[in-house]
Design brief:
One of its GO terms (molecular function) is DNA-binding transcription factor activity. InterPro entries: Homeodomain-like_sf, HTH_AraC, PchR_regulatory_protein. It is a single chain. The strands form two sheets. The chain has an eight-stranded antiparallel sheet with strand order 3-4-5-6-13-8-11-14. A six-stranded mixed sheet has the order 1-2-7-12-9-10, covered by helices on one side. The chain folds into two domains: 2-208, Jelly Rolls; 213-318, Arc Repressor Mutant, subunit A. The protein starts with a strand and ends with a helix. The chain is built from ten helices and 14 strands. The protein is α+β, with helices and mostly antiparallel strands. The longest helix is centred in the middle third of the chain and has 33 residues, at 178-210.
């Protein structure tokens, strides 16, 4: 384990190995006590489905590096029940896992770091499935479009369904006799996966059936403009005029196609860029605010804190 500064720890893969725990029928990964209470458990539910519980309350910022070599394509459903964490790939992509949201990612190889903020409880459940497993239960080609890229990519992120949260909390509170826990986990895991992936398929089918090719192009053009001009973005009225529609229609397109608003997408773009600038120590808070289009650092700090759950100065101080 390597100390980067007095407040940040960078943890290499060999510093956090998984250990067998036969009494739990699981593998356990626990960090040293001096880093706080940080533990993950992995349960193999069948040959192509793993369930992982993560409970972290680190007493300082953690950057846990991971490297997964080329393997069969996998999909991971992450339920963030409390706290916030992120994964930053070596190519600069940032994936946020925020409390209350279900995030679905796909990959067949990954390299980067999982990052946790100090003194913040993070509780997450992850379900890792191969593409073969998905096709077994959802049908051949059901998620083919989600595996177009080799690198880690987000294919869906939305508020977790109420039934999903209820089942997830039941999983964490599983107090059945040891010989019944495996069946309980598998049943609840299957229900959660069916619920969340079913919602994703419904959304994709509704989107495809309700939007024409022209409407999709308009939405993508508007997104590309916001991605290029995030520092001085056009108003919704101006943006809609530039892509050839009206503000009401543009807002409808963003809701159907991106599951957000034009402002929501702009906020995502700005916050993810700001996080990278601060995490890489390229900019202090004031300069990061200006770089992503905020005239006043105070407004930026308020937006950043609301988005991530911690102030930007904590990230710039700890990394």
């Amino acid at each position: 384990m390597h100390v980067n500064s007095t407040t940040a720890w960078r943890i290499a893969p060999d510093d956090a190995l998984w250990q067998a725990a036969p009494e739990h029928n699981a593998l356990i990964q626990a960090l040293p006590d001096e880093l706080g209470v940080c533990q993950s458990k992995i349960f193999k539910l069948d040959a192509d489905l793993n369930y992982i519980e993560t409970r972290y309350t680190p007493n300082r910022h953690l950057a846990m590096f991971s490297q997964m070599p080329q393997q069969a394509p996998r999909m991971v459903l992450t339920l963030a029940l409390t706290g916030h964490s992120c994964f930053q790939s070596n190519n600069g992509n940032l994936i946020n896992f925020k409390a209350g949201y279900s995030t679905i990612t796909t990959f067949n190889a990954s390299e980067g770091s999982r990052q946790y903020q100090s003194d913040q409880l993070v509780t997450q459940l992850r379900f890792s499935m191969t593409q073969v497993w998905l096709e077994k239960y959802f049908g051949e080609g059901a998620f083919a479009a989600s595996f177009k890229q080799n690198a880690v990519q987000v294919v869906s992120q939305r508020a977790s369904a109420a039934a999903t949260v209820l089942a997830a909390r039941s999983l964490l509170q599983n107090s059945l006799p040891a010989n019944a826990q495996g069946l309980f986990r598998q049943g609840h895991a299957m229900a959660i996966v069916a619920n969340e992936l079913g919602c994703m398929l419904d959304s994709a089918q509704a989107q495809s059936s309700h939007l024409s090719a022209r409407e999709k192009r308009l939405a993508e053009m508007a997104r590309d403009i916001l991605s290029a001009e995030y520092k001085h973005p056009p108003s919704v009225a101006e943006l809609s005029k530039r892509v050839g529609t009206n503000p009401f229609k543009l807002k409808q397109l963003f809701h159907c196609y991106f599951n957000t608003t034009p402002y929501g997408l702009l906020l995502d773009i700005r916050m993810e860029l700001a996080y990278r600038l601060l995490a890489n120590r390229q900019y202090p808070v004031g300069m990061a605010a200006e770089a992503v289009g905020y005239q006043y650092p105070g407004n930026f700090s308020t937006a950043f804190t609301k988005y991530f759950g911690f102030p930007p100065k904590r990230l710039s101080r700890q990394t």
